[in-house]
Amino acid sequence: MSKGFDDLLSKVSQCSKKKVSVAVAQDGPVLEAVEEARKRNIADAILVGDADKIKSIADELSIDLNNFEVIDVKDDVEAATKAVSLVHEGKADMYMKGLINTKDFLKSVLNKEVGLRTDKTLSHVCVFEIKGHEGLLFLTDVAFLPYPSLDDKVAIINNTVEIAKACGIDTPKVAPIAAVEVVNPKMPVTVEADELTKMNAEGKITGCIVDGPLSLDLAIDREAAKHKGAEGRKIVGDADILLFPDIHAGNITYKALTHLCDCKNGNILTGTKAPVILTSRSDSTEVKVNSLALGAVVAESLKNN
Fold first, then answer.
1. For residue 148, which of 136, 161, 157 has the smallest C-alpha distance?
2. Which of left, alpha, beta for 41 (phi over 0: left; psi -120 to 50: alpha)?
3. Cα–Cα distances in Å, from 118 out to 12, 157, 271?
4. d(CA 28, CA 33)
5. Torsion over CA of 111, 115, 116 and 119, rounded to 10 degrees?
6. Is 44 left (phi over 0), alpha (psi -120 to 50) or beta?
7. I need a labelling partner for 252 at 20 to 30 A (CA). Which of 127, 162, 215, 265 fits?
C-alpha cells in the first residue's frame, strides 16, 4: 500500500516509463513539471502547442527541448484535439492540460471521434498525503460534478476505488460524508449515504467497504470514533476515500487542506479511457508532478487490467 507520494514514485519506477501528451504546452509551470517528471523517470512528454512560445519559455527556464517531441499547432482548440488524439491512438498514455481553458480542454476529452470518453461518468479525484495522517487520503468529487445524484455517487465510488486499488489499497474504505453520522429523513445527504451503504452490502457496489453517513471526524479520526462510541462501525477513523455530498463541501475541504495543512497532493480526472491530468493554474509544480506520478500508476494499472 502506498503511504505517500514517495511510495507512489517507487511504484512508478517499477512500471514502464509512460508518455504524456500536453495540450497547449506553452506554459512555464507545466514545462517545469514535465521536465521534472522526465528527470524522475515518471514520463516523457509530447508538447503540443505554439512551438515558438514553447521554445521561448523553455529557453527562459533552461529546459532542453531536445528531450521532448514538440508538435507545432498555433490554435488552442486544434492543439487540444491533436494532443488528445495522440492518447486516443495509443501514442501517449496520459493527457495533460496546459495553457487552455478548462471548458475547451474537457471538450477535447469528450470528443466523440478522437477523445477519451467512455460510458462511465467522469469524476475528479484528489489524492492527499497529510502530515500526521496515516496513508493516502482520496477526496472526491471536489472539482467536476457539482451536485451528484445517487447514480453519480455510485459511479464516483467505482471510479475512485479503481484509483485507490492502483495505488495499492486492496479494499478501500469509502466514507460518504455528511454533517452527522445518523440517517435523518430531513437531510437527504444522509439518506443517500445510507442507500450507498446498503448497495455495498447487497453486492451492487463491489471492491470496497462503504459505511455512511459519517461525519468527517468519525471518518478520519480514530479517537473521535472512540469518544463517540462508534467502534462498531465498519469505518472507525480509517477511511481511505471521502465521498463528498456536493462540490462545495469537497472544494472547501480541499482548499482548507492545501492552505492550512502540511500536505502533498495530486489530482486526476477519472472515468476516461486514459488518465487525464486536470490541475489548476494555481497548483504548484510539485502538485503537477505528483499528478503525473498518480497518472502513471493508474495508466500502468489500466494496461494490466
1. 157
2. left
3. 25, 16, 7
4. 9
5. 40
6. beta
7. 162
At 183, the amino acid letter reads: V
List per-residue pLDDT tens for the chain, 305 residues long.
Answer: 667 888 888 888 788 899 999 999 999 999 999 999 999 999 999 999 999 999 999 999 999 999 999 999 999 999 999 999 999 999 999 999 999 999 999 999 999 999 999 999 999 999 999 999 989 999 999 999 999 999 999 999 999 999 999 999 999 999 999 999 999 999 999 999 999 999 999 999 999 999 999 999 999 998 988 888 777 899 999 999 999 999 999 999 999 999 999 999 999 999 999 999 998 777 889 999 999 999 999 999 988 87
Single-letter residue type at 150: L
Q: Is 203 exposed, middle or buried (0-12, 13-18, 19+ CB in 10 A)?
A: exposed
Q: What are phi and psi of 178, to 5 degrees?
A: -145, 180
pTM of the predicted structure, to 2 decimals? 0.94
**E strands, 110-231, where?**
123-130, 137-140, 173-176, 209-210
- In sequence order, the 6+-apart residues with CB closer than 8 A to the CB of 214 are 175, 176, 177, 178, 181, 193, 233, 235, 239
Length of the chain: 305
Tell me the domains of the chain and their CATH numbers.
Answer: 5-117+272-304 (3.40.50.10950), 123-260 (3.40.718.10)
CB 29, CB 288: distance < 8 Å: yes
Cell 482548507, residue located: 256
Can you read off the three cell numbers belonging to residue 58?
523553455
For residue 120, CA distances in Å to 81, 210, 249 come to 21, 20, 23
Q: Give the list of residues 6+ apart from residue 280 with CB closer than 8 angstroms, or none.
A: none
Cell of 278: 486536470
List, in sequence order, every beta strand (DSSP E) within 177-262.
Answer: 209-210, 241-243
DSSP secondary structure code for residue 155 in this structure: H
